[in-house]
Design brief:
Strand content: 35-45%
Largest sheet: 9 strands, mixed
Number of helices: 10
Distance between the termini: 47 Å
Number of strands: 28
Mean pLDDT: 88
Helix content: 10-25%
Protein name: Lipoprotein
Low-confidence stretches: 1-30
Organism: Pseudomonas endophytica
Length: 610
């Protein structure tokens, strides 16, 4: 059936869903979301026409999801969590087109070893971090078409693996949820016999098409609470900060210039809203609402019209489309309400101006590099890359190479779980730092004493409980204490003890790439590190170029002489040519005793069966 994209792309909304053609404000002002959901489902069940039922389900269901998300966001506790500058990479390039070209030209593919005899995995590697959804800020699309094998066979890409296809297949990987862009080449089982991958034709080139839309310019505004209600302008772009709460910003933007002709039929989000707290660090996003009350009221009206119909028709579809276009033409502004994890001091608003735009399309014929994380053999594969990409998080991350014990102790968070009485837990954790990377393997002799106490008649800490040795277990290496309440003579109320933490003493050195010490070798953009002299558990290396910025490490590969043998050397590949190196080495390990007294959570009571 025909569905209009706005129904599918609704953001998080402040609207109340209309149920049965009537607003809950009119009939059920105190109705809960659960009650309104039930009312809507009842209305939906009464629709006989399948096409109309699908359309109503899409729009009404979207509005319900938006209301649920709105409630979740507004009731969310404010807990500080930091993110990264979403436009940091743009600052390293002369214009938006250069950033687009870097994305397209920096993409490559590696072949990964698989534990299966009839699967080969391909991993597309992108030049910009994919740690969040906005890793590359410009609209882009990537479509794989086929792979050429070593026997010159071309295998077309298919959206999913087919049980009935007896040939070699190329499809998205279903095994790696952490890398959704991975692909899998599936080799057939012939006459019940699996042929090992090494005897199968190997992938040589991956083919596809890519497209990037670069805005003609990016306009930036930095706003504070004094700017609430003000409209600021830069040429054809105007921004209004409608409201600014503790953890949210509500913004409206307008571009008085029309969209470039080549992108007028493209769904574009021109607005990037970021926030910083009093420390100047960027706060991570908790969620966003992309429709204002006028937009939601419009969708409610359309839903009401649909609920009055008995069948879907082309005439109804056209009427709703015309109304959508008329509404959009009268409301050209772009609205967004963004919630953040932390209290806001400043709001950074970036507007992508698509009144002029560069649409770059590229045919991709990417060689497949045999660069799995573990390689048997001493031959180093060169990985020439034509682009330069910087690691903007490195400088901040490396500040914690030296970590004061008191700072570590203050960052510890204790979390409890009593869902299972036989395996209740106390977990000691802290935000990861660079220093943690160099702590390495903890000594086996580490101990973590803990004593459990019951509650006395006055509700205070009583005498220590005498427990069998199997009643609890402490694991300093994971920072977890597990205890079995079934083996306790009384319900414990307090736990007192000490959990060992460790801080590494780190020695930082600057290295001249022209005079590297024995065990280090730079070949192009690849740094080769001898593991006998610079073992990975105690050493880290970072690279800079002549700009003074840290280069992004593309990937790291370990080489060994035989399968499952010890690592001989590691190879670190960079996006760019290193001209300066920094080494960080652990020279000592200092124990830090973290003393604690915790009031224990009670096991939730289970209601008796009726």
């Amino acid at each position: 059936m025909y569905l209009r994209s706005p129904w599918i792309c609704l953001g998080l909304s402040t609207a109340l869903l209309m149920a049965g053609g009537c607003s809950p404000d009119e009939k059920h002002p105190q109705a809960s979301l659960k009650e309104r959901t039930a009312a809507f489902e009842k209305s939906l069940d009464s629709i006989q026409d399948p096409a109309l039922k699908d359309a109503v389900a899409d729009l009404g269901g979207s509005l319900l999801l938006l209301e649920r998300a709105r409630i979740r966001l507004q009731d969310r506790a404010i807990e500080t969590e930091y993110g990264t500058d979403e436009l940091a990479q743009l600052k390293h390039y002369p214009n938006s087109q250069a950033l687009s070209d870097t994305y397209l030209n920096g993409l490559f593919v590696v072949r990964k070893n698989s534990s299966s005899d009839y699967l080969t995995d391909l991993e597309p590697v992108f030049p910009f971090s994919q740690s969040n959804t906005s890793y590359f800020p410009f609209p882009h699309a990537l479509e794989w078409q086929s792979v050429t094998l070593s026997n010159k066979q071309v295998v077309p890409f298919q959206a999913e693996w087919s049980e009935t296809d007896s040939g070699i297949q190329l499809s998205p990987s279903s095994a790696n949820l952490s890398n959704p862009d991975d692909l899998t080449i599936t080799y057939p089982i012939v006459d019940g016999v699996q042929t090992t991958n090494s005897q199968q034709p190997q992938p040589i080139t991956l083919h596809g098409e890519a497209e990037v839309i670069a805005p003609g310019k990016v306009v930036n505004f930095t706003l504070t609470r004094k700017d609430v209600g003000r409209t600021l302008s830069d040429a054809n772009i105007s921004v209004t900060l409608l409201s600014l709460g503790k953890n949210f910003a509500e913004v409206d933007i307008n571009n008085s210039a029309p969209l470039a002709e080549e992108v007028r039929d493209t769904d574009l989000n021109p607005l990037i809203i970021q926030a910083r707290d009093s420390t100047g660090q960027f706060l991570s996003r908790a969620g966003s609402i992309e429709e204002n009350t006028e937009q939601v009221a419009f969708y409610q009206q359309q839903l009401a019209q649909m609920l009055k119909q008995t069948a879907w028709s082309d005439a109804l579809s056209q009427k709703l489309d015309d109304e959508q276009k008329a509404f959009d033409s009268k409301h050209p502004n772009h609205y967004s309400k963004v919630y953040f994890n932390g209290e806001i001091e400043n709001v950074d608003i970036s507007v992508l101006d698509f009144s002029t735009a560069n649409v770059t399309r590229k045919t991709l014929d990417l060689p497949v590099w045999p660069l799995d994380k573990n390689i048997v053999g001493k031959e180093v594969t060169p990985l020439p890359l034509s682009v330069v990409v910087y690691d903007d998080q490195a400088a901040s991350y490396l500040k914690d190479a030296t970590l004061a014990p008191e700072k570590l102790k203050k960052s510890v968070v204790i979390s409890q779980s009593v869902d299972e009485a036989s395996a209740a837990t106390l977990e000691f954790s802290h935000p990861p730092t660079f220093n943690d990377e160099l702590v390495g393997e903890l000594p086996d002799s580490t101990v973590s004493p803990v004593t459990f106490f019951a509650e006395d008649v006055n509700g205070k800490r009583g005498e220590p409980l005498e427990l069998p040795i199997e009643a609890f277990d402490t694991n300093p290496k994971t920072g977890v204490i597990t205890y079995d309440l079934n083996l306790f003579p009384e319900t414990p109320t307090y736990a007192i003890g000490s959990m060992p933490l460790f801080v590494a003493t780190v020695d930082k050195q600057s290295l001249d790439v022209a005079r590297l010490p024995k065990g280090l070798e730079l070949k192009g953009n690849a740094l080769i590190v001898d593991q006998a002299l610079f073992p990975a558990d105690a050493w880290r290396f970072y690279a800079k170029d002549d700009t003074g910025n840290y280069l992004k490490e593309v990937l790291a590969v370990s080489h060994s002489a035989k399968l499952y043998g010890p690592t001989l050397f590691n190879v670190h590949y960079f996006y760019g040519q290193p001209t300066h190196l920094e080494s960080y080495a652990r020279t000592a390990l200092t124990p830090v005793e973290y003393g604690f007294e915790v009031k224990l959570d009670k096991v939730p009571e289970v209601a008796p069966p009726h």
